[in-house]
Specification:
10 helices, alpha+beta, single chain, Beta-lactamase
């Protein structure tokens, strides 16, 4: 009897200790939020133990909020698994018996102009005709709910089957004589109206604008420079840009053709000639460490196309995602995704779903997530390098941080923090995230 009482006492003691630990950590995290200038109702947090899968802290964990770029975690893993780790982005060249050539696009986000030159070398000096098969993904070049006034943001270029050079051009502004206009140099020919109001001075301060509500096809740069600056701009028509670079490649290779590109789907009359490929391995790193929207959206559509055996589209990708969640026993009924990258504010996530996803997909996620000092964590939480793997998310009025942490007490957690607050600055939102992680690291 005494032995049983002793065992019971030990169990009660352990339970009490764990309860005190949980209450203590919760109190500490609540205090961090209370001491910030952000109301609790604007913060959603879920923290779960990687050892037990049990929740150790939660706040508004079932309240839907825009996830921003942390959404890339839940769209990228199903997409990459669907495509396969050995998947290659391919741009293929075919010809028929009459000397007609066909380029089959693969929506390769890593395709460069130099690759087109390599591909067209296989053509004869006189080419009868050149056609393009662009059916690999659909023609929707932006995501639902993307902001029209972000259309010159180089982090949000259009994406399509015609992906090339990241669908961007570079413009170099060079200083001349003081108070004289700066020189403007385009790295590649592309028809656009660029108004240069930048002059040469003693400092560098300039801005680039596209007032779509006034003049949708005109880009204006104004200000002053004292050194060469580079402006990266998305092209407004990836298809037009691709055809211009393809023409350049043919000319450079001294190929003669009629200058007209036809649209045609690959059929049995064509046989394979050559291809340019890029591995998918770079994509996971670019999406999850560097938060690359362009690659994220392309990969998701390609995976949807493979899953549905059809032209890739967001809807096909969404069906792939739903099936993935079903197979993983993940309840995604309380979330809403309308793009792959999290750019749209129409996306809604709950932090409880995110931590469940992190736990289930830990083996796939940990090797490809950024630690402190890398990617979007380059300047954040540097003292946690090696103990933190995380993905950031930022939109106007929205900030998020999610991932894994190993604490100084030897515990490991999956966490998700989402903040939606129009009255606080981005800096203060990220400060709250950092303070919550710091407290979890020390106290957890």
């Amino acid at each position: 009897m005494n032995k049983k009482i002793g065992i019971l006492a030990v169990l009660i003691s352990v339970f009490s200790a764990n309860l005190c630990f949980a209450r203590g950590l919760s109190d500490d995290l609540n205090n961090v939020i209370s001491n910030s200038n952000i109301k609790k109702g604007c913060v959603s947090v879920s923290i779960k133990s990687l050892e037990s899968n049990k929740t150790v802290y939660e706040l508004n964990q079932s309240v839907p909020m825009p996830p921003a770029s942390i959404q890339k975690l839940v769209t990228t893993i199903p997409a990459v698994k669907t495509l396969g780790n050995d998947y290659k982005f391919e741009t293929k060249l075919y010809k028929d018996t009459e000397g007609n050539y066909l380029i089959v696009l693969g929506a390769d986000p890593y395709l460069q102009s130099k690759d087109l030159k390599t591909l067209t070398k296989k053509m004869p000096a006189e080419v009868k005709s050149v056609s393009i098969d662009d059916t690999v993904i659909d023609k929707m070049e932006w995501g639902e709910g993307w902001q029209w006034d972000d259309d010159i943001n180089p982090l949000m270029p259009k994406f399509s089957a015609y992906n090339l050079d990241r669908n961007t051009i570079k413009i170099f502004l060079e200083p001349t004589e003081k108070n004289a206009p700066a020189n403007v140099i385009f790295d590649k020919e592309y028809p656009t109206t660029f108004i240069n109001q930048v002059i040469t001075g003693d400092t560098t301060s300039y801005k680039v604008e596209k007032k779509s509500y006034e003049t949708p096809d005109i880009i204006t740069a104004e200000g002053v420079i004292n050194k060469t600056v580079t402006i990266t701009l998305p092209v407004n028509s990836p298809k037009k840009y691709f055809k211009l670079r393809l023409t350049d490649a043919l000319i450079d290779n001294e190929k003669s053709f009629d200058g007209i590109y036809h649209t045609k789907k690959l059929n049995k009359n064509y046989y394979f000639v050559d291809k340019v490929t890029h591995d998918i391995s770079s994509a996971k790193n670019d999406i999850l460490k560097n938060s690359d929207n362009y690659v994220s959206e392309t990969v998701f559509k390609l995976a949807g196309g493979k899953f549905k055996k059809c032209t890739g589209s967001f809807q096909a990708g969404k069906e792939m995602f739903d099936e993935y969640c079903k197979n993983q026993n993940l309840d995604n009924s309380q979330i809403n995704i309308v793009d792959a990258s999290g750019v749209s504010k129409n996306n809604l996530m709950i932090s409880d779903f995110m931590t469940d996803f992190l736990i289930i997909n830990r083996e796939e996620l940990e090797p490809v997530m950024a630690t402190s000092g890398e990617g979007t964590l380059t300047d954040r939480l540097l003292y946690l390098k090696g103990n933190l793997l995380a993905k950031t998310g930022t939109l106007a009025n929205v900030s998020a941080l999610t991932g894994y942490i190993a604490t100084q007490n030897g515990h490991k957690y999956a966490f998700c923090i989402m903040i939606q607050d129009s009255k606080s600055s981005t800096k203060n939102k990220k400060l709250l995230e950092d303070n919550l992680i710091k407290t979890l690291y020390i106290k957890g």
